[in-house]
Design brief:
Length: 101
Amino acid sequence: MALFRHELGDVLRDARRSQGRTLRQVSSDARVSLGYLSEIERGQKEASSELLVSVTDALGLPLSFVLREVSDRIAVAEGVSVPDTVPDELTDAAGPLVGAR
């Protein structure tokens, strides 16, 4: 069973790593403690909406894109086929995270 917090953590970690950034860099930019962000990335803690906005801003990604990626990963785990409807301008801005399932 796919849990939202696990998929969210994976998406955030994948985005951070694809940018070549450390957990310390992102936590500093997002003004979130290093330990707490680490727990979110590992799916051990639930992120509040405010914290999630801070982290996605620090990563330079739209919140909607991150939530869509999480939703798509959960759909795949559930065996649901999801059509690709992300506009090209957003996929270009998101870089290698798009389609990284």
